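Bump. Still looking for XPGN domain-containing protein structure tokens.
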Amino acid sequence: MGRGLWDVLGKYREPVDISALKNKRIAVNGHCWLWEIMRGNVANCSSTLKPHLSTFYNRCQALMDYGIEPVIVFDNVENSIRHDPQNNTVLKKDRKNRSGIWAKELRLEIINQIREIKILLNAMGVRFMASKLEGEAQCAQLEQRGLVHGCITRSIDYILFGGTNLYQVEFSSSGRSIHNSILVLSMNRISDQLCINRSALIAMAFMIGCDYYTGGIPGVGAVLATEILSEFYVMKQDHPQVILDRFISYVTGAVPVREIDSDLKRKLKEKCQRNLIDIRCLHPNTDAFSNLINAYFTPSVIEYSRAQLPKKGSIDHSKVQEFLLRECNWDPMYAELVENNSPNKQTKDRNIAILRHELSTAICQASQRSCSKREILAVERLHSMAAEYRFVPNVEIISVPATSDDMIKNEQKVENNSNNANNRRSTKRKTNMVSADEPSSKVSARKPSGITSSPLDMKDGQRQATTDVEDNSKGLENGLLNTDEVSCAQTLHVIPSKA
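Sorry for the wait, here they are.
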């Protein structure tokens, strides 16, 4: 889940009121909710037989009460591992606890829970959809297409997959209420504060450790990764492999040390030589490493469009109540009635909301002030580098080989260009042709000149340079002999003297 990145990016979260999400469609990482239920902190507070059903009902209903439309996205648990055909690397699918592959019994349990949750969501009229592999990647695709305004998740990988707005929503223990203050981590704010983009974040994730490269670089933490970026991340067009290759090339001596190199660069090289930073297993220029990076740049997702988005239904209260009573012996209407009639409930909820907002604000402010001196200097270097390369034109990053669709498009483009070139040559040939009705006395034999620079006219025994079309028309006007067909810049015209 990219926990190391939270040490860097967590301090740039902002508290916002829950009302800011009113009338917006928000994707929800369903597996994050499932993991919270399985971990026990939600299940222990629930008295129902199947806490995953009551939790999803309460949380979805709480979001809809605030005018938020949730879209639940689940991971593809059945396809929990993906084999790379090029290097036979097994890419880990479990993105919740880094434990590797889902255990067989756990996978069957989750598949059954998801099936029951989908029945409940269908009765509630809540949209839900499957993903090809990664739930966070699918949510990011929905936001990139403008189908949602962000994602409720605790996984920082949502930003690495291309998401922009990550929301952290705190629910009550029962899930029936939401604390008014939520935390949002925006990629726009990260870019403004750190002057880095998604490529730099992916490079940082591989240095610290992420789901696809769990070990990271031994000896590199959040602060040191920021320092490495400040020295080897030059401009926003830099690919993660380029950033890491610059670092490896410098510390291994492939790039010589210069007098203008900073003290930090020299210290990084010294740490690598003393094995305080272990780079022996880091090979950024290999195909295997490229495939790992492309797992973030081009994740396996279902390309949903607005027309393919599941239709929103209307809630069927009787069907929901009947399903929950049958499956977990729990009546949501009765539970809500009991909670609303409990003494001091409104006062308690209001006090909790106020305290939560104050606590969230204090935590965000304290995190921003907790930056070490090294981190502050690294951020200043990033700002300085961004100012220096501010006017560099945008260059599209090509991070993966062309797909079959791209190759077909390129072939069609080449064919169209070839047809256009043939049409232009045909038009030019017709322009230079002499009408077939001209007298035969005006037609002379054509002799190849062997001169490819320009055509030549022979007049009075002397060579005279001419142009392609203008001289041909001039020759016709003067009654001179000309050819019936002219090959531009490759023909010698022999013209007899008038005498």
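Residues 81-101, 392-403, 434-461, 465-499 have pLDDT under 50 and may be disordered.

Edit: fixed formatting.
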